[in-house]
Design goal:
By secondary structure, the chain is an alpha/beta fold. It has a single domain, classed as 6-pyruvoyl tetrahydropterin synthase/QueD (Tetrahydropterin Synthase, Chain A, 2-Layer Sandwich). About 25% of the residues lie in helices and about 30% in strands. The protein has 4 helices and 7 strands; from the N terminus they run ββαβαβαββαβ. A 7-stranded mixed beta sheet has the order 6-5-2-1-3-4-7. It is elongated and about 60 Å long. The protein binds zinc ion. The site of zinc ion (ZN) has 5 residues, from strand 2.
Length: about 180
């Protein structure tokens, strides 16, 4: 039944998916309807990671990586930066002025409008490479769920070899 049960199939790709949850506020700059108002979501993120070397590489225990390390790094970043924060597009000067006026305040300036799509892209392209970089894994796919029914997905393309600098794109001001 199995050709080579000890070594496995060399074409098999292994991946892990970890769910992460946080709450945040945002608004969509220039949205034509109600998403232009300040509001928030209970977000869920699904992050899929694969071995940096590719394929079915596992450690001596048989893991791509321990689940707890993904949680520690990614949820640690989310807790510090996005949880109970307001996500604001850097060109949305009106919203920026509002969140800066409140005390205490926690907000996060995004280089793009904070849609679920752009949040997924930011986690995939900017956050994951920086926080998972030395663990021997790369994020292949990030889904950001705004509701139980709807999510946006960012998928790593073959051209995503550069790791953008985390600090260059963001500015966090937490006085709480
Ligand atoms: Zn929303």
């Amino acid at each position: 039944m199995f050709d080579n049960p000890e070594r496995g199939d060399a074409t098999t790709q292994l991946a892990l998916v970890r769910q992460l949850k946080f709450c945040a506020g945002h608004r969509l700059y220039r949205h034509e309807s109600k998403c232009a108002f300040f509001h928030g979501h209970n977000y869920r993120v699904d992050i899929e990671v694969v071995p940096a070397a590719g394929g079915g590489e596992v450690d001596v225990v048989g893991r791509v990586i321990d689940f707890s390390l993904i949680k520690q790094r990614m949820l640690g970043w989310l807790d510090a930066n996005w949880d109970h924060a307001f996500l604001v597009f850097e060109e949305d000067e009106n919203a920026l002025a509002a969140v800066r006026m409140v005390e205490p305040t926690k907000y996060f300036v995004m280089p793009w409008n904070p849609t679920a799509e752009n949040m997924a892209r930011y986690l995939l392209e900017v956050v994951a490479p920086n926080v998972l970089g030395n663990l021997g894994v790369v994020a292949r796919r990030v889904a950001v769920w705004e509701t139980d029914e709807a999510c946006a997905v960012a998928i790593r393309g073959s051209a995503c070899e550069d790791t953008p600098e985390l600090a260059a794109a963001v500015c966090v001001d937490s006085r709480s």
